[in-house]
Amino acid sequence: MGKKILLANDHIEGIRFLDTYRKHGGYASLEKALKSMTPEQIVEEVKTSGLRGRGGAGFPTGMKWSFLAKPEGVPRYVVCNADESEPGTFKDRYLMERIPHLLIEGMILSSYALGAKTSYIYIRGEYFYVARILEQAIDEAYAAGLLGKNILNSGFDLDLHVQIGAGAYICGEETALLESLEGKRGNPRIKPPFPAIAGLYGCPTVVNNVETIAAVVPIVNEGGAAYAAIGVGNSKGTKLISASGHINKPGVYEIELGVPVEEFIYSDEYCGGIRNGKKLKAVVAGGSSVPILPTELILNTAAGEPRLMSYESLGDGGFATGTMLGSGGFIVMDEDTSIVKNLYTFARFYHHESCGQCSPCREGTGWMEKILHKILHGHGTLADVDLLWDIQSKIEGKTICPLGEAAAWPVAAAIRHFRKEFEDFIRNGEHVNDVKHYYRLNNLTAPIN
Amino acid sequence: MAKVTIDGIEIEVPDGTTILQAARMIGGDIVPPAMCYYSKLKTSGGYCRTCLVKVSKGSEKDPRPMPKPVASCRTTVMDGMEVLNITSPEVLEARAGVVEMLLLNHPLDCPVCDQAGECHLQDLAYEHGKAETRYEFPRREFEKIDIGDKVQLHMTRCIMCFRCVKVADQITDGRVHGVINRGDAAEISTYIEKAIDNDFSGNVIDVCPVGALTDKTFRFKSRVWYTKPVDAHRDCPTCSGKVRLWYKGEDVARVTARKDTYGEAEEWICNSCRFEHKKTSDWVIEGPTKVDRHSVISANHYENLRLLKASIDRQRASLPHGDKVDLGTGALNPNNEEK
Ligand SMILES: Cc1cc2nc3c(=O)[nH]c(=O)nc-3n(C[C@H](O)[C@H](O)[C@H](O)COP(=O)(O)O)c2cc1C
Ligand code: SF4
Ligand code: SF4
Ligand code: FES
Fold it and tell me: Which ipTM value was assigned to this complex?
């Protein structure tokens, strides 16, 4: 059994509520931090831990924290990114639903470490019921003197607010999130300046993912070194993986970073193998934005080494033969899956979610969706595959925010690894078993010839 | 001060200058095209991506190149920075891509568009685009709407440069003009089609790079290249009163702000000057002006461009892919072409 730090107690009945949470060691880190540690010491522990951002980019959290500007007389903010909208990712929801106090405890620690007196949890609109769970928990924390003025008689004050978004993927991008939090249209800002210098209301701000902030709790409790002892290489600690797709046991799993991908897919401790005894075809390992990999490349690297669930190992080979850990949205596809259809679904998503500020993303995402729709309806030509490739290359790296890349990478990877399937689909209309079914299901015109 | 080199030409500029401004100080062919940046509007720029350039050396202190092309209008120079614009095939390719995207849903209705002849998108397409489109789907369309009795919004032509939004934000008070919806369904809108009722609202027409916001008092009166620009002023209680009159024969067909080489208004003008003073007797005439940059208006613009383009293409073809060329502007001067 792998070591669990965040979800060690998630099975305990009533862990959602303050008294049960405290009975199982909850808020111990707060007592420790407020009574015996300076804010700087907490930042140091986080640096020592090697914790990397769990929202997708994997940026070292301690380093991000030390970049925060601290001008005199200007407030600072800690903002938790609970917008979780990347298709395939649902770990933050699980954590907030089950153990809301873990996030709140982490928010108080982070705010203390960074000198914030007001902090926010920005949560996606569709998670309104989760927001209610958080609000209840926050009320409990206020009543117990864990939030508000003079927390645990330490002299430290903190107000924590939950803000519900309106259900836009782009509001997960940290600067769009800040705009939305300020009550404006959720458009990403042009950087620099980065939030660490000018974030919420123009003040220095740290934005971190739910899981990142929750991980600060065990880091303070056990020390950064203990956290860093878990994992491999520069992938320290544990990671929540949202496993979905054609597996026997979809769900949220906490893994020690470094578990072999093969073990993760096939062992009974995790996904439990492919559903209905089918064969594995492909995996999108870190949420819809990261490159899809076929079986050979997801189980082993191009060099033939077993691929591990870690930032480095999944990234091995660059985009030519590798992918990214991303947000940990692990989508498994069996042999009956149509990559063409899957790509269409992803492309439609990015088209729908583009904010429309910059021309390559605004226009290019819609164009790619239309071409894939055409291919799916049997009207594609072989030239369309090259065109798709060209369009994604005209978007990637030329936009304001990384949604451009997020839209381009899946297209590039699907063509890179499954070009033949696209060509077969265009020539023969059907390649994969379930496509006929798909047409019947959706009442679409069958492919010609 | 910071020293920056753009396409091999060095210039020293004050700290905080953007790459685009530095390029404009050098002037000539190395100036990146800018469809959304507008020097008089704060926080403008960054959206259209036509001004992308490659930073091949970050600065003297940190010489690493920047990994992605950057928007020159929103990137400030660093001492020792080296920038490639027209000498980078990669930049030209990226720009051609952006132009294709901008034109993707554009109706290309230039024959019936009032902006034709002074449209920045026309110029851009001619200078940096490709001859044909690869887009085969129906183009996006919107209903025309009137915003007030003097301005018409034809959203179908809009390229989402956000300039008009910034005008509404920054030079008119009580903003009722903004963006609704998202992605390629985003549109410029006013609060429930409310008339923009403000002394300076007409300036949205001047900042619009395309024919999306047009002057209703000039609608279909004339093609701009049949009108003659004349600078004039009057003693105006609201604005500077310094304008450009566009004559058709003896009549003032329309009034606009005076624009500089990059098509930017020199000074904002009020609606009274723009819409209500259309008699020669209203104005003190300063004399005819030469509008030098704009496509159809300036003689031989396209011919010069054709030569320039041929020259760049030739140089590009002779280079191994991705290599940078060191061209003085002289090499790109069409007049040196036949040497
Ligand atoms: C389009 C887009 C959507 C994103 N959505 C999320 C999200 O839902 N949750 C999240 O934590 N980070 C998201 N991010 C990443 C954030 O911008 C940011 O990097 C992250 O919140 C930083 O936190 P971390 O360092 O703890 O990972 C998104 C980024 C982009 C470009
Ligand atoms: S890349 Fe897309 S989502 Fe990001 S700012 Fe540009 S248009 Fe908006
Ligand atoms: S209407 Fe004109 S000025 Fe306004 S965003 Fe569109 S193109 Fe730009
Ligand atoms: S002018 Fe720089 S991005 Fe539009």
Answer: 0.89
Q: What is the band of B240 on the pLDDT scale with cuts at 50, 70, 90?
A: very high
E strands, A139-288, in order: 159-164, 205-209, 231-232, 235-236, 238-245, 251-256, 280-284
CATH assignment, A339-444: 1.20.1440.230
Chain B hits for A400, Cβ within 8 Å: 46-47
Cβ distance of B98 and A394 shorter than 8 Å? yes
Q: Locate the ligand 4 atom nearest the alpha carbon of residue B49 and give its number.
A: 3
Residue indicated by tokens 């209903």: B143
Contacts of A405 in chain B (CB under 8 A): none
**Nearest CB to B184; choose among A356, A387, A399:** A356
Pick the CATH number of A18-229 from 1.10.10.10, 3.40.50.11540, 1.10.1370.30, 1.10.357.10: 3.40.50.11540
Give the global pTM.
Answer: 0.90
Tell me the DSSP string of A320-357. HH----TT-EEEEEETT--HHHHHHHHHHHHHHH--S-
> For the ranges A29-43, A381-395, B252-266, B315-329, which has the lowest average pLDDT?
B315-329
* Tokens describing residue A2: 């792998």
The number of the ligand 3 atom at minimal distance from the alpha carbon of B36 is 8
User: Cβ of A387 under 8 Å from any chain B Cβ?
Assistant: yes
A168 and chain B in contact, CB less than 8 A: yes
Q: Which tokens sit at B10?
A: 């060095």
B105-159 per-position pLDDT tens digit: 999 899 899 999 889 999 999 888 887 889 999 999 999 988 888 899 999 999 9
